[in-house]
Amino acid sequence: MNFGSRWGIPSWSGVGPLPPGREFAVLESAEPDAVASLVRMLGATHVVTRAGGSVERRLVESGFGITTTVDRLSVLTPPGPPPARFALAPRATPATTEEAVASARRGAAVDADGTLIEDTADAGGWNGDPSGVVSVVEAHPIASRLDVTVDRPTWLLARDPYYRRWTATVDGALADVRPAGGLFLAVRVPAGRHDVRLRYDEPGIRAGVMVALFCVLLVTPLLVQLTGPAD
Question: What does pTM read for this prediction?
Fold first, then answer.
């Protein structure tokens, strides 16, 4: 559950309060000594943990500050600003799911030098453009638009939870979305300047809205009949 909701801290999983399976696989089995590195890799702005516990101690030793303690839970903030939500990988390395998740548990699947990208041995773009530019045109939890300029094919990393329902387009053409860093997502951007769009589309959400509207249209006339003036 999102314990941070008690203090008004939204879930880092942009499409809901519970992280998906990949995040559980990483967060529930993270290596104790890697907790600070993992939090920085996630780009978290707040951490909620048991007050006085080993996780709190490790974070404080790494420079995190305690801002609030309530009900034996502490809220901590990392030193310095969090990493950007969108970034270009100067170097990418192909990896299996198991390798990427294991590295994420150590807080090492994404760092300043590169990113692990899953199952893309023939995709290319491994030595990216470290001087490329990413400009955020629009950014929402489930839909973003970016202006990306690179001198050579480069992987664009998004620190959003990877789901199979994510789609991407580059200049309007569908692009492959790959798991990155064990729990994020990435898109390969060719050389040049491009319009890149990311979107999460869950069919159940749309269907639910349609059912709700249908029920409103169906029930409203009945309510009017039941509550209308008596003859």
Answer: 0.77
